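Forgive a beginner's question, but would it be possible to get a protein, spelled out as residues, together with the matching structure tokens, please?
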Amino acid sequence: MAARQPRFNQAVLIDTTPLPDSIPKVDEVGASSAPLMSASYFIGARCKDYNDDYMLCKTEAHGKGEFDCMKEGRKVTRCAASVLDDITKNCLQEFRNHWQCLEDNNQQLWQCRKWEWKLNGCVYNKLGLEKKIPGAPEHEIPVHLRKRQIYSQNEPGVIT
């Protein structure tokens, strides 16, 4: 047994340095990893242009554009927050079912296809956003649309 008791600092460290006035203020998204993963393809669909601008800024700054690219980064954050708000307002139950399934299944998308299909349908019907996997082969059925999910532990075989 150790001779001295361990000490833990539980204080929250907050940087109180204000950002320059040239950088627009924006609230954080305020979501954990499961809701963000659930909505990620819809965020990507709506916020693609903002994301591309941000990544272009970061590329042109050669990794030193923390303040230079802050405006573009804030636009990406605002856009992502607006997508989450819209999904929550229009498809709350489907969204909640899907992200809770992801939370319960170690963020494995293939375990939650049943809920994902319902969420995708609701978001497409009410918001017009469609899930598209970047880089997926054009001539194949996307993995999230296949009727037979081979590896699913929750619902093996055909999901209805």
Summary: The beta strands are 148-149, 157-158. The two ends are 57 Å apart (CA to CA). The first strand starts at residue 148 and ends at 149. Residues 70-90 form the longest helix (21 residues).
